[in-house]
Amino acid sequence: MTRARMPRPHEVAAARRDPRLLRALRERRQDEAWRTRGTCQSVDPETFFPAPNEPADVAVALCRSCDVQGSCLAWALEVGDCHGVWGGTTPRERRAMLVAWRSEVQPDPDAAGEPGPPVRDRLLTLVPLS
Ligand code: SF4
pTM of the prediction? Predict the structure, then answer.
């Protein structure tokens, strides 16, 4: 098992200026129904969970055209999810964003226990639970 390295200070500094993060901060909690409006609703969920050595370009491009990109990324950062593509970001990008996010916002007590977004729900249906 490989462990993800901690983001470097210059990566966190860049994440703080990233327009995707700034949009997530603006749109955080603005649209509680974002899960039902994602572009990924009509796309194979595996697209959003590429293997570590596979490109995430297709998923990231789909997210760019998604109306709820900011709310989606805010959700992923609030729950600390570093798997898959959320809100147009890769897990590596989000690790740096997560450091910036946690210094900017307080944890959302209502986020705990929320069901995952549709793409995750559909992925779980593909992976049988033992
Ligand atoms: S992962 Fe998020 S931003 Fe990307 S298409 Fe789905 S809902 Fe939209």
Answer: 0.80
**Neighbouring C-beta atoms of residue 66, cutoff 10 Å:** 18
Q: Which two tokens stand for residue 19?
A: 């327009």
Q: In testing the pocket of ligand 1, which one of 66, 78, 82 has its CB within 8 Å of the most ligand atoms?
A: 66
| C-alpha of residue 69 to centroid of ligand 1, in Å | 6
Q: Tell which residue, 104, 117, 120, has the closest CA to residue 16.
A: 104
Contact present, 21 and 95 (Cβ < 8 Å): no
**Residue among 36, 81, 119 to mutate when testing ligand 1 (max atoms within 8 A of CB):** 119
Q: What is the pLDDT of residues 24-39, one digit of tens each?
A: 999 998 888 999 999 9
Please give the distance, rounded to the nearest whole angstrom, from the Cα atom of residue 41 to the centre of ligand 1. 8
CA 55 distance to own-chain centroid:
16
